[in-house]
Amino acid sequence: MKLTMxxxxxxxxxxxxxxxxxxxxxxxxxGILVQTYFFGFGVLIQLALALIxxxxxxxAVLKLRSRAIWPSLSDGSAxxxxxxxxxxxxxxxxxxxxxxxxxxxxxxxxxxxGGLGFNLFNPAMAAYVLLLISFPVQMTSWSPxxxxxxxxxxxADQFAMIFTEATSQGVTLDxxxxxxxxxxxxxxxxxxxxxSVSQGYTVTEAMSYIGFGEIAGLGWQxxxxxxxxxxxxxxxxxxxxxxIPVSFIVSLGLASxxxxxxxxxxxxxxxxxxxxxxxMLGAFFIxxxxxxxxxxxxxxxxxxxxIGLTVYVIRQFGGYPDAVAFAVVIMNMAVPLIDHYTQPRxxxxxxxx
Amino acid sequence: METLLxxxxxxxxxxxxxxxxxxxxxxxxxxxxxxxxxxxxxxxLPLKQHIGANGSLLVNVGDHVLKGQALTAPxxxxxxxxxxxxxxxxxxxxxxxxxxxxxxxxxxxILRPDGADKWIELTPIRDISSLDNxxxxxxxxxxxxxxxxxxxxxxxxxADSPKPIEFLVINGVECEPYITADDRLMRDHAQQIVxxxxxxxxxxxxxxxxxxxxxxxxEAIAAVxxxxxxxxxxxxRSIPTKYPSGGEKQLVKLLTxxxxxxTGIPADIGVLVQNVGxxxxxxxxxxxGKPLIERVVTVTGNTISQPNNVWALLGTEIKHLLDSQGxxxxxxxxxxxxxxxxxxTLPSVRIPVVKTTNCILAPDNKELAIPGxxxxxxxxxxxxDACPQSLLPQQLQWFAKGKEYEKLEEYNLxxxxxxxxxxxxxxxxxxxxxYYRVAKADIREQKLEQVKAERAKERFEARKARLERxxxxxxxxxxxxxxxxxxxxxxxxKVQEALARVxxxxxxxxxxxxxxxxxxxxxxxxxxxxxxxxxxMQEREKRKAQARKYKEAKTEQVSSVDQKDxxxxxxxxxxxxxxxxxxQVSSDQAPEDKKTxxxxxxxxxxxxxxxKQAEEANDNTAEPxxxxxxxxxxxxxxxxxxxxxxxxxxxxxxxKQAEEANDNTVEPxxxxxxxxxxxxxxxxxxxxxxxxxxxxxxxKQAEEANDNTVEPxxxxxxxxxxxxxxxxxxxxxxxxxxxxxxxKQAEEANDKTLESxxxxxxxxxxxxxxxxxxxxxxxxxxxxxxxKQVEDTNDNTLEPxxxxxxxxxxxxxxxxxxxxxxxxxxxxxxxKQAEDTNDNTLEPxxxxxxxxxxxxxxxxxxxxxxxxxxxxxxxKQAEEANDSTVEPLEEQQSTDTEQxxxxxxxxxxxxxxxxxxxxxxxxxKKQAKEQEGNEPS
Lengths: 353, 937
Hints:
- The complex is a heterodimer.
- By secondary structure, chain A is mainly α.
- Chain A has helices spanning about 15-40, 40-65, 70-75, 75-85, 95-110, 125-135, 135-140, 155-165, 175-180, 190-200, 205, 220-235, 245-260, 270-275, 280-285, 295-315, 325-340.
- Chain A is built from 17 helices and no strands.
- The longest helix of chain A has 23 residues, at about 15-40.
- Chain A starts with 16 loop residues before the first helix and ends in a 12-residue tail after the last helix.
- Chain B folds into three domains: about 135-290, Rossmann fold, CATH 3.40.50.11540; about 380-430, no CATH class; about 445-935, no CATH class.
């Protein structure tokens, strides 16, 4: 009888890369829904744009590299990149912003390094950094929270805004924003606080500004809460380890706490930092990207803490309102070094009790 | 702070990192008591079923044996006997596919049960307190007990621990899914297991005995606890179910908080681990007097209609087990020996149950899905989280793919226990363990290469020194010859030169000697040329640990007889048949030239066939050791010289090819020296002495190799010019008989390795019966010594012993040419075979020394024969390897054509041929030089 030969082990956990990616994407859903609720359908339009772009880009590059397209595309990693990028760009940003970002993430950051598993940098964040540096205006123009505007944009107008950069009546995003809320801001709470503080206002004054909620800005805090929820699910599903998110949050919390104690006037406080901007998204969904993160447990703690600290430093002293993308990309570079110095002690080596 | 002992007594358990929880799948097979199988039709008993050496055979084909009768006797070096599992008749003793992932053939006894199942007389012991440790250990040894948890380490060695044992750990964890053999054994025979523990307790006197059982076996825990109630030192510990808690290192950590040092064994930290199956076997051996002849095997999987545990006689074919429990195979059926995590798939169901077989798993393709395609690593580190050894499997995988061996070692690859947890959790389905296995093998091989390169360098230096010396000698000779000294004086001069060479070699100044001394100094041995057996043992013991996986059983005997003496031919034929005989080449006697040619043709055909068989084997290596005896009265010195030169060149070439292979194998190092100018018996004696020295050296080198193979030791002695042929023939026959005996002993000796050591004696024209007798005596001594060495080895290889005897009373050049042609054909064949292989090979390192002014054709013939044998051997070794490829000997053909021309030679033509031969020799030498580092000199 002919028997089939195989190498041990003969059993498998039935985990797969695509399942992991799908789980992460599923965990993003609460965040996306909340974001859509506050910022409009633009979020979903950007998501669709990004998904289409990455699929086409990945397929094209794989074709160029003479690789099978579907096996790589179906692992879901490109789609997850698209998703993370799409929820990071402003919902009403022009279409080409997202397309350029998605293309760059896949073609340059991921595939040019050799595809999944070989990229040094987190593709979504590297693309975000590219966009932020190249198109600062578009990338910082968040539409006002829908709850506080006097008049919402219709779906058609959002489409028009994204694809023609103006509504059907020819109103641009900037004009529309100033028209619907008193005073002009399309900036995020982080941005506003930063600007106000730099203009000599105290944080309390800045916080009382319209558009701010109780803790970290209306809308934003709920978006962060939703991503926290998704992140906890990922932890429970054992898709990610606790080390990076916990050390990230603790480090950011500690740094902002210390900052608040030293300079309460110019420092919005720990909770504000934790629940505004991309903190939770970064802690659970971005910094934990396995490919570009540290791989040892101790290394992960260091990596997460370093990102948290960098985020705080850039938010507080740097030129950009938010810093998750920068912090992640910077620490990506340090990963090989961290990994090298944080090898766990192998059984039977070293101290014996 | 509590002491460790107090903590342990209080029931504290420690943790090891990582681990996984695969589906347990144990309920299918642990519901019923262990059942008995009907007697199988035949039993296949590999001589080696454990880690260590074979025992030596005690039975012959056709013998009737009783149940429990020892079939092999253990020697030294961790060898264990095997016993007849039932009464019956020994049907055959031959290599059979073994219980190994590659099913490498292993010398096995095939037993046909007679149905009576009659026990041999047993000597059970009632009260063990009357026995001392040595007696108990002897009982355990003679019962053939090896670790039954899977590794198969001889239990008597462990029981005889030179280090004090603080904690005796009993492994009843059985963490592998599906397997319930230990579970069931503990439930059904807890009392006996506890008695077995008490035997070890008496021997080792540990402070405490920690009995670890996973908490998914509550019945077993209850049974063992009840059975051990009376013994306060036995602490039964229920440990959390997690794979691989049953790993030795993990269990030691769990129960004692200690970690086994990276390169050490548990005894280093005062711990000894024994499996429950082993303890049951100890109980049986001591209290019932029964040797280890059966074991519990779990037969399970979805394709088995009645999964259960069975008592399977060792040697029972897996097919019998499967069929007995109702087996309905699916497409792409896998049959795993062992569990789903660490077991290996069998290539055939015709594999016997051995001492380490704990489970036969025949899953369908749903319960254990066929692995998907390997995807890119996403560095998720799930593997690192699962690793019980705290390794970084993901990093190791990158290094393994990049062949960064230093990095691999830096990341502690060799601490990997190959538990498979990393592969199990890998979302990309990367066969991580397989990468590590390959990388480990590569690293071992690379280290071996380094050792080889070093040795080759030494050889090269020695050779260079020798060549320079030879050149000097030749120049001196020319100088002295110029005043046209008489032939006699020239001859005397040659004798003196030969003697001087020998002396030179023996003196410390000689480069060869220096090389040997260097090598020895490295090993910290004394400077004697004689092989030191104790040193060998040490070396071997070290090697043993590395060498487990490679096995080879191959016996090959090529005997080519080309002589007028019918008796000698008959003896040779008988010998060839006797020797395990997969391959046999024998050529019949031929009184005349034509007949000789016919015989040669037959021999060639057989050689081809033999080669084919050898080729089909994919084992690690077998090396033939051949003893070549040639007594040739070749009339034309020049032709003989040419033939010898060609043979030498070929041998060199073959050696080179073999060397280029990179493998798990070993190298025979042989020193062939042919001193052709020998004019009288003294010279012959000198030549013989040199040959002996070389053979010894070769043997020593072989010993020093840490490969799986063993090498032949050959002693070539040629006493020429003996006046009385008949007496010489008698002497030769005696020598042959001894060689045969030696070979047999070797065969019975330990495991995988059989070596033949043969003493070759060529008695040509024996003038004086006394001389012949002396020669025979020497040959006998050699054979004995060689046999002893062989017996002491425990390597994985079996080497055929070939006795090539060619006594050619060739009267004229034509016969010599025919002989040379046969040799050529064989060499060519061997080369071809070598070419076809891709493997782990060995390298023969041969030192061929030729002194060119051949005065006596007969001696040249002897030299040629030796060279031929060597070439053959080298080729065979190469062939049997399975890795890197070896290259063919192409240049041989050119020399062949030259040689062919010699057949019809006029004196002028002969001169031309001689010139050509010289050119060929020079080429061969040049090539050898190019090879430098690798080239054996």
